[in-house]
Amino acid sequence: MKKNKIKIAFDLDGVIVNKPPLVPKRLLEWLFKGGGSRLHYRFPHSNLEQMIRKISHFYLFRPPMGKNINFIKKIAKDDDYELYIVSSRYSFLKRETEIWLEKRNLEKLFKKIYLNEKNEQPHLFKEKVLKEIKPDIFIDDDEAIVDYLCQKTKTHIYCFSLKKVTPKPETNLFLSSLELLFR
Q1: pTM (2 decimals)?
Q2: Strand order in 6-10's β-sheet?
Q3: CATH topology for 6-19+63-182?
Q4: Each residue of 106-121: pLDDT tens digit?
Q5: Strand, helix or coil for residue 15
């Protein structure tokens, strides 16, 4: 009898790709959320804003999260796992994302890489993809999205965070290391 593979899906930014250094947190929050609702994310319509985002996603400005990548490389060698990326990066960042993954030789580790090419709201895009691929585990760094997905999918959702947090028992589980899932 063939054993089912454990499907694990990862968000990209904040789980595999680090934030750009030297960019103020407030600027990043404005670029992505616009100061609005926790579950509303700005789509940059102007060419200038898209250019700023493309520059901020240039592979040299986005360092890899080394420990997480090493862990992913390790489990990618194990036939018991099937790995995915589910990133809400908008369509205009597709090429920057492909370059980032290629430069770090990561693109072949994943069965499929899902990008938000129709520019949907990130939480809705991720919900749709998770319901399609039905992973056993999904790891994201956006607490609002994690809270939303915990209510909308049957997937075990974890919030990755390097800062000290106090988990809320009624919502999601926080991880400070991907390896904690397998201890």
Answers
A1: 0.88
A2: 112-116, 81-90, 6-10, 137-140, 156-160, 173-175
A3: Rossmann fold (3.40.50)
A4: 999 999 999 999 999 9
A5: coil
